[in-house]
Design brief:
The structure is a single chain. By secondary structure, this protein is of the alpha/beta class. It contains nine helices and eight strands. It has an eight-stranded parallel sheet. Helix 8 links the parallel strand 7 and strand 8. Helix 6 packs parallel to helix 7 and helix 8 runs parallel beside helix 9. The chain starts with a strand and ends in a 6-residue tail after the last helix.
Length: 339
């Protein structure tokens, strides 16, 4: 199982070798990076060229890079022309990054925060996946095209809608090579194994997610989970920690009430507990789960952002860093025992 981190710092900072050292020391063998897109973009601009240069160095350092592409909700590529532009842009960047083969098409597409309006979104997303799948497989036959859904906004219903649109289209090639999902808990203190009945889909709702995918695409040209290497990747997961009192590292208003400590004695739930449970659960959901990514490596300074990293905002390790590094070593070596 891949254990990765969502870390956009690798495109913003020039010290690529230093960032790779930190990621590897923490135990992350893969990094996912987001590229922004807006209508009319056909080729990478000057800023994107800088990103490409840094990610190319990362690939040469043999750190696996996952490229994710998305934009503002109102810019979702809902028309044939927009889909052509988007997939052409994606293809150009993938071609420029040596070794890049894991490609996420949009982000949390079932959420109105990332795709708006939601009316007809499953059909539009199925068309986008198909267009990009064709473009990218023509470029690089071993490419791994990945979808993305959010835990809220009934992802199971959305998956069923994509499956229905795929059947109706008559398409004879797959839509994806991997089904991506972001199984965040409803709050950071909630157990990763929690089961929901309100349309929310976290890690504990694995059985429902697997069933929705298998039923939605059964009998089509889309390989099912467990066929031809198709798995689920948990593309983002994370547990926000309380910020240390007296450190002038953070500003603004917090966006969550159920924060947890990075490390706490006794029965108090902390970040170590939560990430250990999430990693162990994903590991034991193999072979149908192929990866889990922690969002993120270092905290954002804005409290309205996310403080779910293994490093504080000043890039110093949290108390959770060392114990999680030890567990990640067990996970990635295959030494962890389920049950």
């Amino acid at each position: 199982m891949l254990v990765g981190v969502d870390d956009d710092w690798v495109k913003w900072r020039a010290d690529t070798p230093g960032l790779v050292r930190i990621q590897r020391d923490a135990g992350f063998d893969t990094v996912k990076v987001m590229f922004p897109w807006r209508p009319g973009m056909l080729h990478p601009g000057t800023i994107e060229q800088h990103y490409i240069s840094r990610l190319s160095r990362m690939s040469l350092l043999r750190q696996r890079v996952v490229l994710a592409f998305a934009g503002r909700a109102r810019h979702a590529p809902r028309t044939p022309r927009a889909r052509d532009q988007f997939c052409r842009y994606v293809r150009g960047i993938v071609a420029a990054v040596p070794g890049a083969r894991d490609i996420v098409i949009w982000n949390e597409v079932n959420s109105p925060s990332f795709w708006r309006p939601q009316r007809d979104a499953p059909r539009q997303y199925a068309a986008l996946l198909g267009r990009c799948w064709d473009e990218l497989h023509a470029l690089r036959p071993d490419v791994n095209v990945i979808s993305s859904t959010a835990p809220r906004h009934n992802p199971l219903q959305f998956v069923r809608g994509v499956g229905a649109a795929y059947r109706a289209s008559g398409r004879t090639r797959p839509l994806v090579d991997t089904f991506g999902h972001n199984p965040y808990p409803s709050v950071s203190s909630e157990s990763p194994a929690a089961v929901h009945e309100n349309g929310y889909v976290g890690q504990g709702d694995y059985d429902a997610l697997v069933r929705a995918i298998q039923v939605s695409f059964s009998g089509t040209h889309q390989p099912l989970l467990g066929e031809q290497g198709v798995t689920i990747w948990y593309l983002e997961d994370g547990f926000q920690t309380r910020t240390p009192f007296g450190r002038p590292l953070y500003h603004g208003l917090e966006n969550e009430l159920a924060l947890i400590p990075a490390l706490a004695p006794g029965p108090v739930v902390d970040q170590v507990d939560q990430l250990q449970r999430a990693l162990a659960l994903a590991y034991c959901q193999q072979p149908l789960v192929g990866a889990l990514f922690n969002f993120q490596l270092a905290d954002e300074r804005r409290l309205a952002g996310w403080q779910s990293g293994l490093l504080w905002a000043n890039w110093q390790p949290k108390p959770s860093y060392a114990p999680l590094r030890d567990l990640l070593a067990q996970i990635t070596s295959g030494a962890y025992a389920c049950g």
